[in-house]
């Protein structure tokens, strides 16, 4: 089965072609980082306009790189949500007519399920059941994937997403956008123990996350000590990163042990972070958990992951009607 996948939920325009659910024939990602960088965050109106400009060339390149043409395909997968409505609409508005004209089955994919399916594009795909920590710019949540395509929400952020916290702290420190990669680079020169930022504790001891406290405390620290020398900026970046990593690792391990789940998947843009990857790896070894982390380029937004999830849904007989449309707050599980 050869499937074309289209992703445009936020600020990456992406298309990919996947054969048999595992063999990636092409993956094209057009980043809009340079467009949003001057604003320190994604500007929704600019994002949808840029998607409109590049979506057709991106899809054409994905097909050309894969050496397939539209009639060769067995289906089309498109991200339906969650995401920015204007951005999602562009992907859906391209996928639907392509499916109609070429009489191809269409399937709608949840972006978060896509992130989870990035872990199936490796030589060591996870077996169900597993616990998935999805950490991105818009979401931070733990899902129990009991069986293929079946999810239960175990915990989620009560305020900011982890990636959002990285982006906001980078902006506070004047480091640029997107925040995650630049904080990670800046932190290399800093001491992760230099500053103690608060670790959020849930009063009910649940598996939920909170990142607004650490963000506010970084903001206060920066205001009180401004202007910061380069060495201090590095210490703030390293200490902030260490705090977020500690919170993510603790909650994930605790939830896995509590629920008796032996396998863990780490995915989403923030899963590209080297410190998080290493820390969860170490914790997994310590607690006898099997950890699966996709390569970095499959953790951040891409269409390969959407195509992987879409292929499983198509194979299960799922079809989206041509009346399908973007759902900005689409949930994966409750
Ligand atoms: O999954 P993603 O590409 O898009 C969304 O679905 O949101 O995640 C983007 C987020 C951004 O907040 C970005 O700062 C963060 O992932 N990110 C990182 C790293 N690379 C990207 N955060 C920490 N360390 C990184 N190396
Ligand atoms: Zn994402």
Describe what this molecule looks like in 3D.
- This protein has 11 helices and 10 strands.
- It has 334 residues and is of the alpha/beta class.
- It has 2 domains: 134 residues, ATPase, nucleotide binding domain (Nucleotidyltransferase, domain 5, 2-Layer Sandwich); 169 residues, Nucleotidyltransferase, domain 5, CATH 3.30.420.
- The strands form 2 sheets. A 5-stranded mixed beta sheet has the order 3-2-1-4-5, with helices on both faces. Strands 8-7-6-9-10 form a 5-stranded mixed beta sheet, sandwiched between helices.
- Helix 5 crosses helix 6.
- The radius of gyration is 20 Å and the shape is globular.
- The model has no long low-confidence stretch (mean pLDDT 97).
- Bound molecules: 5'-O-[(R)-(carboxyoxy)(hydroxy)phosphoryl]adenosine (KG4) and zinc ion.
- CATH superfamily assignment of the largest domain? ATPase, nucleotide binding domain
Give the SSE order as H and E letters: EEEHHEHEHEEEHHHHEHEHH
Number of strands: 10
Ligands, deduplicated: 5'-O-[(R)-(carboxyoxy)(hydroxy)phosphoryl]adenosine, zinc ion
Largest sheet: 5 strands, mixed
Radius of gyration: 20 Å
Based on Cα principal axes, name the global outline: globular
Q: Under the CATH scheme, which architecture of the largest domain would be assigned?
A: 2-Layer Sandwich
Q: From the 3D structure, determine the CATH topology of the largest domain.
A: Nucleotidyltransferase, domain 5
Helix content: 40-55%
Low-confidence stretches: none
Q: Quickly name the level 1 CATH class of the largest domain.
A: Alpha Beta
Q: How many domains would you count in the coordinates?
A: 2
Mean model confidence by pLDDT: 97
Annotation field: number of helices: 11
- Helix/strand structural class: alpha/beta
Strand order of the largest sheet: 3-2-1-4-5
